[in-house]
Amino acid sequence: MSKAVFLATALAIPLAACGVTKSEVIAYSVDVDADKGIAIFSCKQSSSETCIFKFDDPGAQPQSLTVAKGEAGNVTSVGVGSTYCATTGAPGATCKAQILQAGTQAIHHEKRSTT
Hints:
Mean pLDDT: 83
Strand content: over 45%
Shape: globular
């Protein structure tokens, strides 16, 4: 057993010197019914296990929506051309503005960083 501990320690030191690669991943779909003013957001994948959606349109209800991985949530009072952003909510996660379009959109974003 002491050989295994020594080997694990010996491998950990060089890896720590190289830095660790972290990945922020978010994948989701949006289905917009323009006539009803409803958008359904489905969280397909997230490095934090949740997708967070924030809306710029003051009429959007709710203004922010948190959806667990594998789940979906609705937003009302939004239409084609409304803007929103999506994030994992993890520290340092980015939130890039997107524009709602009629129909279904599938979005996948991955960002890698070394610490």
